[in-house]
Design brief:
By secondary structure, this protein is an alpha+beta fold. Helices cover 20% and strands 28% of the residues. The protein has a 6-stranded mixed β-sheet, covered by helices on one side.
Length: 177
């Protein structure tokens, strides 16, 4: 009974992997010639560093603060994605949120925007599970021409499909947990 679910997960994720996996930059460039990079950083951890345990699922389970530089003036909305890149079987979505106003800083525990359903069947942020070393993660931030207007609890796949026509720029912040 467990194996069919795992294989279904792989089949489902293959539909969305070209947009949310490590090949994200290539996929975004393919959909729009004018996609510009955003610079994403955090005061809680360095780029490629280790996420402090206070943002893990076992601790406060809140998102870390994020800083966005290079936001286009024409951006009307933001979308955020947290992905566990090397999870067993397929990449896992830990957080997806859209219709965030175009802001330069996302504070720790920020509840703006509409949360989507992550791969743990929770609407909102689910931090890394807090094991000693659980792998490679990445925050993605997308600047959009207009809000996506998807309902709360929509899937990552639905959000990524809507994203392709509205994307202005994106940035990523890789880290380990």
């Amino acid at each position: 009974m467990i194996l069919p679910g795992l294989f279904l997960k792989v089949a489902h994720r293959q539909l969305s992997l070209p947009l949310v996996s490590a090949s994200l930059s290539q996929a975004c460039v393919c959909h729009s010639e004018r996609v510009l990079p955003l610079r994403l950083s955090s005061c809680a951890f360095p780029r490629g560093g280790v996420l402090p345990s206070e943002y893990s699922y076992a601790a406060s389970n809140t998102n870390p603060p994020l800083r966005i530089d290079g936001l286009p003036e024409t951006a009307r909305s933001l979308m955020i994605l947290l992905e566990h890149r090397n999870a067993p079987i397929a990449p896992r979505t830990h957080w997806i949120c859209w219709d965030i106003p175009p802001i330069l800083e996302i504070q720790a525990g920020d509840q703006r925007g509409k949360p989507g359903r992550n791969d743990f069947l929770i609407n909102g942020y689910t931090g890394p599970l807090g094991q000693p070393f659980s792998g490679s993660f990445c925050f993605f931030v997308f600047a959009l021409r207009r809000p996506l207007h998807l309902p709360v609890g929509a899937s990552c796949y639905q959000a990524m499909r809507s994203l392709t026509t509205e994307l202005l720029s994106f940035g990523e912040l890789p880290f380990y947990a």
